[in-house]
Amino acid sequence: MPDRLDPAFVRAQIEALRVSHPDIWEDETDRLLALESETTTREYLIAVVRRMLEAEALADELEATKARQQRFGRRAEAMRALAHKVMDWAELRKLELPQATLSIRAGVPRVIVTDETVLPPNCVRIKREPDKTAIREHLARGERIPGAEMSNAEPVLAVLRDKRIK
């Protein structure tokens, strides 16, 4: 099998098998035996699934890392607020420390919206996006929705993991 995942190579093997033994395509057992003995299909799919599971594991790790990053960000903000409170209590405007110099200065005014409904149109952004749930419900009832239609269901690959393998 080639070092990299090459679907063209595997497809060529399968097509060559199909041409040389057209009779096996009617029986799934014969087809599976021929594919395993005459092609690298099984090894190829093992490699594909290994990479797929590795990618899923990395995606899960990144999600956990993202959650952890957010927790550390919240902790940093809490520590910043605590330092600010302590300096306020002590009536300190500036304090030099080994790691940093802390100073309390005037902040920047923020916009506070008290009532969205009375804002003028040039001060409001409206995001327009399809409500696919509502569209699906209308189409399921047989209603015609201009600009939308249901697709044909495409086959999907189900992957049932062997829990013994990490």
List keywords for this structure.
single chain, 166 residues, mainly alpha, two-stranded antiparallel ribbon, 2 strands, 4% strand, elongated
On the 0 to 100 scale, the average pLDDT is 92
Output the number of helix runs. Answer: 4
Principal-axis shape equals: elongated
Query: Which class best fits the helix and strand makeup?
Result: mainly alpha
Strand content: under 5%
Strand order of the largest sheet: 1-2
Q: Output the helix-strand order.
A: HHHEEH
Terminal Cα span: 24 Å
Unreliable stretches: none
Query: What is Rg?
Result: 31 Å
Q: How is the main sheet built?
A: 2 strands, antiparallel
What is the helix fraction of residues, given as a range? Answer: 40-55%
Q: Tell how many strands the DSSP assignment holds.
A: 2
Structure description:
The protein has helices at 7-20, 28-38, 41-89, 132-140, and strands at 94-96, 101-103. The chain contains four helices and two strands; from the N terminus they run αααββα. A two-stranded antiparallel sheet has the order 1-2. The model has no long low-confidence stretch (mean pLDDT 92). It has a domain at 40-140. The two termini are 24 Å apart. Helices cover 50% and strands 4% of the residues. With 166 residues, the protein is mainly alpha-helical.
Short recap of the structure:
With 166 residues, this protein is mainly alpha-helical. It is 50% helix and 4% strand.
